[in-house]
Automatic annotation (TrEMBL), chain B:
This is ATP synthase subunit b'. Belongs to the ATPase B chain family. InterPro entries: ATP_synth_b, ATP_synth_B-like_membr_sf, ATP_synth_b/b'su_bac/chlpt, ATP_synthase_B_chain. It is found in: Cellular thylakoid membrane; Endomembrane system. Pfam families: ATP-synt_B. The keyword Ion transport applies.
Length: 251, 142
């Protein structure tokens, strides 16, 4: 079995977890490889958007058509969760969440990042780093708190004791489990997919990892959808509140 | 794996920046375009419905006009036929009357000539009978 490990001299079959290409910025430590790939993703999104919207036609063609399809897809995510009335101001946030996570995941699954040599660690999907996913999840938490306070002021706190004060601890706990589950779900899925593919490539370099890679593409897309949908659902929950919603439904 | 550091806040800032940039270059223009297109389609649809309605109205009107002019034409034909028939009848009657008149005239002339002929014949009959009588009796008498 040990002889199999010799495969890790192959450039494509290296397995490095927990090693980072550190950048130091005035006493701060940064994961350089995450920023490099995230800048690629951001650049891709911005370039595609600018190219598509540079010369908008009434009858869409080519890239504009594609980007309008993308727009309608993310708009439907936001609209389905937030409702026709509320979704407009939250569309950029939810849509950017989906696009950034989706493009990050697929760049990790489709592009041979590992071929590019960096001094330490390896390039991978930005969403495979816990810092990215926690950042996105905390932003989601901030977003729904902001949504709740903006809509209902301090009355937002009423939702903690709305059905019954007995559930107060659980309601408070929810505010912690939401970002935790959001971030760990995404991080775990992407990293696990990367590791599974890497281990399979380590064992059988050709063809055998392909089905797992296909599965990885699928789960990556699903994770992006799940993250965006849940973020929109949390914002909707904060906007509506448990109690109001219940009364409306019973009425 | 779980080493948190300054990547987290910077990534959050970066993501917020991306949100604002994408809002400016993607979400706003695309939604504007789609709304404009929706509006264009709606107004075009409304105006085309209007056009359709007016076209239908025009078609109806033309059909009515067509029907009325067809009726008029039929009336005209019927009138013309009636007039022609009348003329024909009149002329036939006139011709018949003329023929009748001529026949009567001719008959009259014939009658007259016959009478004349009869009269002259009667005269001649008298003379001839006298002559015959003379001839028969003359020898006896003489």
């Amino acid at each position: 079995m040990l002889s199999l490990l010799h495969f890790d001299v192959l450039p494509l079959a290296e397995l490095e977890v927990g090693r980072h290409f550190y950048w130091h910025l005035g006493g701060l430590q940064l994961h350089g490889q995450v920023f490099m790939t995230s800048w690629f993703v951001i650049g891709l999104l911005l370039i595609a958007s600018v190219l598509a919207t540079r010369n908008m036609q009434r009858v869409p063609q080519g890239l504009q058509n594609f980007m309008e399809y993308v727009f309608e897809f993310v708009r439907d995510i936001a609209k389905n969760q937030l409702g026709e009335k509320e979704y407009r101001p939250w569309l950029p946030f939810v849509g950017t969440l989906f696009l950034f996570i989706f493009v990050s995941n697929w760049s990790g699954a489709l592009l041979p990042w590992h071929v590019i040599e960096i001094p330490e660690g390896e390039l991978a999907a930005p969403t495979g780093d816990i810092n990215t996913t926690v950042a996105l999840a905390l932003l989601t938490s901030l977003a729904y708190f902001y949504a709740g306070f903006k809509k209902r002021g301090l009355g937002y706190f009423a939702k903690y004791i709305e059905p019954t004060p007995i559930l107060l601890p659980i309601a408070i706990l929810e505010d912690f489990t939401k970002p935790l589950s959001l971030s760990f779900r995404l991080f775990g899925n992407i990293l696990a997919d990367e590791l599974v593919v890497a281990v399979l490539v380590l064992l059988v370099p050709l063809f055998v990892p392909l089905p797992v890679m296909m599965l990885g593409l699928f789960t990556s897309a699903i994770q992006a959808l799940v993250f965006a949908t849940l973020a929109a659902a949390y914002i909707h929950e904060a906007l509506e509140g448990h109690g109001d919603e219940g009364h409306e439904e019973h009425a | 794996m779980f080493d948190f550091d300054a990547t987290l806040p910077l990534m959050a800032l970066q993501f917020l920046l991306l949100t604002f940039l994408l809002n400016a270059v993607f979400f706003k223009p695309v939604s504007k375009t789609i709304d404009e297109r929706d509006g264009y389609i709606r107004t075009t649809k409304a105006s085309s419905a209007e056009y359709l309605e007016s076209a239908e109205k025009l078609a109806k009107q033309y059909q009515q006009e067509l029907a009325s002019s067809r009726k008029q034409a039929q009336q005209l034909i019927a009138d013309a036929q009636a007039e022609a028939q009348e003329t024909v009848d009149k002329q036939v009657a006139e011709a018949q009357m003329e023929a009748q008149q001529r026949r009567e005239q001719v008959q009259k002339e014939l009658d007259q000539q016959k009478q004349e002929a009869m009269q002259s014949l009667e005269g001649q009959v008298d003379v001839l009978s006298q002559q015959i009588l003379d001839k028969l009796l003359g020898a006896q008498a003489a």
